[in-house]
Amino acid sequence: MLEGIIQNVRERVPLIHCITNYVTVNDVANILLACGGSPIMADDQQEVEEITSICAGLDINIGTLNSRTISSMLLAGKQANRLGHITVLDPVGAGASQLRTNTAKSLLEEVKFTVIRGNSSEIKTIAAGKGNTQGVDANELDAITEQNLPQAVEFATKLSESTGSTIAITGAIDLVCDTTQAYVIRNGHPVMSKITGTGCMLTGVIAAYCAANSDRVTEATVAAIAAMGLCGELAYQKICETNGGTSSFRTYLIDAMSKMEDDILKGGAKIEVYTR
Amino acid sequence: MLEGIIQNVRERVPLIHCITNYVTVNDVANILLACGGSPIMADDQQEVEEITSICAGLDINIGTLNSRTISSMLLAGKQANRLGHITVLDPVGAGASQLRTNTAKSLLEEVKFTVIRGNSSEIKTIAAGKGNTQGVDANELDAITEQNLPQAVEFATKLSESTGSTIAITGAIDLVCDTTQAYVIRNGHPVMSKITGTGCMLTGVIAAYCAANSDRVTEATVAAIAAMGLCGELAYQKICETNGGTSSFRTYLIDAMSKMEDDILKGGAKIEVYTR
Amino acid sequence: MLEGIIQNVRERVPLIHCITNYVTVNDVANILLACGGSPIMADDQQEVEEITSICAGLDINIGTLNSRTISSMLLAGKQANRLGHITVLDPVGAGASQLRTNTAKSLLEEVKFTVIRGNSSEIKTIAAGKGNTQGVDANELDAITEQNLPQAVEFATKLSESTGSTIAITGAIDLVCDTTQAYVIRNGHPVMSKITGTGCMLTGVIAAYCAANSDRVTEATVAAIAAMGLCGELAYQKICETNGGTSSFRTYLIDAMSKMEDDILKGGAKIEVYTR
User: Fold this and answer.
1) Tens-digit pLDDT profile for chain B (276 aa)?
2) What DSSP line would sit under A91-111, residue for residue?
């Protein structure tokens, strides 16, 4: 199912326009390069349409929003839509403030996204128009568990129907749904939540994987999530061997992504096709 | 004296709202996670009051200021005061430009800070309303030495009295004073000044330690400074073992913070209660 | 020819004012410290003239431009010119958007730069007033090769004549020209293009090397490029030994710069004086 997805990224080197927060922007750029893509960051309204035009994909991430960048996100998103480019939304902290919730809402009204990726709290905010986000991490009540998986699949499928987007809800258990398919991914490691930016980085990787595999974006999203989770597992193994901490973990995570290939992913991916 | 301070951080996971510069923001987020807290960065006036309301502490850092973020700092600071939250000021480069000096002054007039942390030059600028800052490092004339320690304690105590804040002056020798207590900390390593962000990271850690130990903020500040210095010592040891340079040092510093516990701190802290 | 250049940087610790993009700003600050300089980042028009006045050099990098920072670049550049400071321009992505192309043009009209460093596509954009930039990497057509080296030298020499700047075109082969001299540098490693910021970091290092060696800026530029390339080679060697990936490469690159000395550079530099 995931054959050749990573190979395509490495051969096609998709250029990804990122309008993203300044907290994790360096990590996003580096993991995009590591996974086989190429990043370009530009957030001024005077250039975003031009920049997005020369790219294959657009990654919009609403962390550290301001009014200047919101306009740019809308302009870039519409331009990407006009050109039929891959568009990915990361609604960081939707639900934590009206500004973020409303911006996510505006973006969804005016831009069609290929994929929306967030934690369960952010995705629920998007679905509900109201939120229960604590900070930028999903609060516990909202997390996907083995018990509430059927409800989560139903919820995500409906959201996919209403938005036309592939929905990716990530956390201890990851879920990817479009209107007809659902996948559960069980890769990853808890230390991933002890560094900033794993979500932002993942969204960047999803954009690159989808841009290089635009004929199978749901599968590309699944592959990106499994690859990222597997990198987390490999990085955890390496900090155990070297007695490292969370910053070494970050380094090894990106290191692992720079070496990720289809065969490695195939050997380590824990993907389940969810049967309704 | 420092018993349980770190344990409290790891158990309570204080959410810290950071309005900070874009140079070291990623390091601040990562060390906040490493020390047991949780970061959220938001600097737009449309959301800072809401964001700070869901947090336990506010970290204001005036590096890379602009007029947009200055307003946000004032709004967030006042809101944090209304809610009785921990507020920490890092007056990066106060004295290097009128903008920074005046912003520090405005912040001190309109916001009550739990802790103010800077190098000796920045803190003197705050006290004097005029400065002698070279870049963002304390110039040598201003540095605290064994010889001028009594004068420094007197100076910091007076500043604590006039501001109502715990004053932390960091450098080769670190000093923490409130109106009744003074502590001298002799942890740390000179290589800490060869990476960017050790000061910004420390201020973030102080915010988290204080937010999780709000009944003893001066002690929490001392613990944070000693912990950071000890991490610097451990990181230096590790670059010697691995033949690493300054970037590895940065990685190992955050690594060490991610493993810091009360017992490790107790074993390595070099804290002196200063008796006047 | 390069004798004492690095020693001068380490002894004089030039303070470099950077107005640079938020993607790689942390790397730029850290490599400036690693190479022996000291960074200060400030981009608000209310303070840039003051800040640049206390510095020895100014590094202007047009990645992630916006209208606020463009004004600041012009103000800082003119002030640096008035004071006779070293000024270095990195026209990131010139040619990728009108905003970037026009900003580079305005800067060149209003500010005299000591050095302009970019990839071949960016430098050609500057020369031509039109561009063929794909993203922020030079497209293949434009790259300097052994075959087109004579044409490249002629091109760069003419640009040096018209701008009064030392011209540095970097890529697999690096070229530095002023009106009378031309140098070809063959250090570096392809993995350098797999992390973000090698160009931005190099420009920062050039600013520090020139500021500490203002009587021989072309040689200082050559030294900076060779040093950076050599660090890339050493970092590559280290990831091979440790089975690391691209993020470890970034760490080792800055590590190597923190240990760079004149003797190491002399032993590893691959510099050819180009004879016309």
Assistant:
1) 899 999 999 999 999 999 999 999 999 999 999 999 999 999 999 999 999 999 999 999 999 999 899 999 999 999 999 999 999 999 999 999 999 999 999 999 999 999 999 999 999 999 986 444 555 565 555 789 999 999 999 999 999 999 999 999 999 999 999 999 999 999 999 999 999 999 999 999 999 999 999 999 999 999 999 999 999 999 999 999 999 999 999 999 999 999 999 999 999 999 999 987
2) -TTBTTBHHHHHHHHHHHHH-
**Coil, helix or strand for B169?**
strand
The beta-strand segments (E) located in A27-161 are 38-41, 57-61, 86-90, 115-119
Enumerate the residues of chain A whose CB falls inside 8 A of the CB of residue C196.
26, 29-30, 33, 39
Q: How far apart are CA B263 and CA B270, in angstroms?
A: 14
| pLDDT tens, position by position, C135-161 | 556 555 578 999 999 999 999 999 999
**Interface touch A54/C134, C-beta < 8 Å:** yes
Number of CB atoms found within 10 A of residue C240's CB: 9
The pLDDT of residue B99? 96
Minimal CA separation from C31 to chain A, in Å = 15
Please count the residue pairs, one from chain B and one from chain C, whose beta carbons lie less than 8 angstroms apart.
94
Burial of A10 (0-12, 13-18, 19+ CB in 10 A): middle
A/B interface, count of CB pairs below 8 Å: 94
When computed from its CA atoms, the radius of gyration of chain B, rounded to whole angstroms, is: 17
Q: What is the rounded distance in angstroms from the CA atom of residue B46 to the CA atom of residue A66?
A: 8
C117 labeled binding residue: yes
Q: Is the pTM of this model over 0.80?
A: yes
Q: How many domains does chain B have?
A: 1
Q: Which residues of B touch A248 (CB under 8 A)?
A: 251-252, 255
Contacts of C46 in chain B (CB under 8 A): 67, 97-99
Is B47:B70 a contact under the CB 8 Å cutoff? no
Structure confidence by residue, pLDDT tens digits, A32-85: 999 999 999 999 999 999 999 999 999 999 999 998 999 999 999 999 999 999
**The pLDDT of residue A63:** 96
Question: Which chain B residues are closer than 8 Å to A24 by Cβ?
Answer: 26, 29
In three-state secondary structure terms, B105 is helix
Q: Which residues have a Cβ under 8 Å from the Cβ of C263 and sit 6 or more positions away? A: none
- Euclidean distance between CA atoms A275 and A180, whole angstroms: 10
What span, in angstroms and rounded, lies between the C-alpha atoms of B205 and B184? Answer: 18
Specify the DSSP element, H or E, that contains C73. Answer: helix C67-83
Does the beta-carbon distance from A39 to C196 stay under 8 Å? Answer: yes
Cα–Cα distance measured from residue B25 to residue B31, given in angstroms and rounded to the nearest whole number: 10
Q: Which residue has the tokens 């107790």?
A: B266
Question: Is residue B5 within 8 Å of B209, Cβ to Cβ?
Answer: yes
- B256 Cα to chain A: minimum distance (Å): 7
Spatial distance between the Cα atoms of B250 and A247, rounded to a whole number of angstroms = 8
Interchain pair C51, B134: CB under 8 A: no
CA distance B64 to chain C (A): 5
Q: What is the pLDDT of residue C130?
A: 43
Task: Write the CATH number for C255.
Answer: 3.40.1190.20
Diameter over CA atoms, chain C: 50
Q: Report CB contact under 8 Å: B26, A27.
A: yes
| Structural domain span for residue B262 | 5-273
| C:86-145 residues touching chain A, CB 8 A cutoff | 93, 96-100, 134-137
Mutate to test the interface with B, among A27, A97, A249 (most CBs of B within 10 A): A97
CA pair distance A190, B119, nearest whole angstrom? 36
> Do the Cβ atoms of B33 and A246 come within 8 Å?
yes
